[in-house]
Amino acid sequence: MNGWIQLGIMVVTYILSIAMRPKPSSPPAATLQDVSVPTVDQGTPVPVVFGDVWIENWMVLWYGDLRVAPIKSGGKK
Q: Per its UniProt entry, which superkingdom is the organism in (predicted)?
């Protein structure tokens, strides 16, 4: 009988812990100002390397498509 009481208390406290936990807030969407990428200035020489090497003054010439598109729910049915 004592085991059933302990089991019931465990179940109740588990359910209360799930119900009382704080709800996480969703992070804000990233903007172009949040992206920090080293860029090329006009007149800066661009090194040409062959193979795997470490370059001290690396720079990014192109960095993907930064447009934002909303996610549409649904899909193929």
A: Bacteria
